[in-house]
């Protein structure tokens, strides 16, 4: 899930709001390691940024590619593949100047690689699941839905190092959107050579800190440090190994055996045992996301907004977060999690302050 995910009407926003839990090896062990092993839950459907949708995939792809902007350790937006950019006075035109850097095969990364990527992900035939995140760009929605041709897209190559992007309207958050994998560059020369197979094994070239060395389905994905990465001198770990194992109890055993350094998730039922026996391995860190239930509003009953509101009011979010999940989740009463950068105070439902009994009584009246 992402901060920009479209949400349907009639959603029961329950949790998660701002936390995630995982295992990690002690800091000194990670810093000294030549490699880092990671329990990554799911098997990726792809490593092509245009055909992924899961967090487990983005963890891998995010180590392989670098968008125009990226995030600093504190979450602030900093230059990525673009060393700088300017914004027109009306906030509609962004002009990016690319830094000198190359793909992992030595080919220069150019503005055309970003132009090609935007055109490809928004092409209707690509059918990319998250293409709508780029609808901020002028005519992106029209291109994506087949109502306009690709040349109408508000992305222009000025020269090899300069990319111009025009927006539908002023969007101060646009540079933050560009951190998402939907805005990563794509090596057009490799796609033209290998087609959809370009993102598999050593055929996958990348412009980020790591490049793909091996992908053994349902076993492991191995990334190695990209010597062509522009900031390679500051990449301290030479190898990342991702294990796609969804059985969290099985991964816990591998953590205890020293086979896995980091596990990205653990069962809430294991929390007390972990706090007692492995407290140094637990990190409960902020995570921006919302757990929700979409409802079928074409259903004869659920199409009534009073019914949907009653269902939403009947969910005891505090019980779920405090008694069931127990890893720092915050009850969600709106779609935008608290702490979302530069957003201000998120709007919430007006019945949040009612007691449990008052909510039930009002819900019954609605039904």
Q: What pattern of helices and strands is seen along the backbone?
A: EEHEHEEEEHHEEHHEEEHEHEEHHH
Total count of helical runs of at least 4 residues: 11
- What does the radius of gyration come to? 22 Å
**pLDDT below 50 for ≥5 consecutive residues: which ranges?**
1-19, 27-32
Annotated CATH architecture of the domain at 20-65 and 195-285: 3-Layer(aba) Sandwich
Family: Belongs to the bacterial solute-binding protein 5 family.
Subcellular location: Cell envelope
Protein name: Solute-binding protein family 5 domain-containing protein
Domain Solute-binding protein family: 77-366
Task: Write a structural description.
The chain has helices at 27-32, 55-64, 111-122, 140-144, 174-177, 188-194, 248-256, 271-277, 305-314, 317-325, 356-366, and strands at 11-13, 20-24, 35-39, 69-71, 77-79, 82-87, 93-98, 155-159, 162-166, 210-216, 220-225, 239-243, 262-263, 282-285, 292-294. The two termini are 32 Å apart. The protein is globular, with a radius of gyration of 22 Å. A hairpin with a 3-residue loop joins strand 10 and strand 11 (220-225). Residues 1-19 and 27-32 have low confidence and may be disordered. The chain has a seven-stranded mixed beta sheet, sandwiched between helices. It is α+β, with helices and mostly antiparallel strands and 367 residues long. Among the domains are: 11-18 and 289-366, Dipeptide-binding Protein, domain 3 (Roll), CATH 3.10.105; 20-65 and 195-285, D-Maltodextrin-Binding Protein, domain 2 (3-Layer(aba) Sandwich), CATH 3.40.190.10.
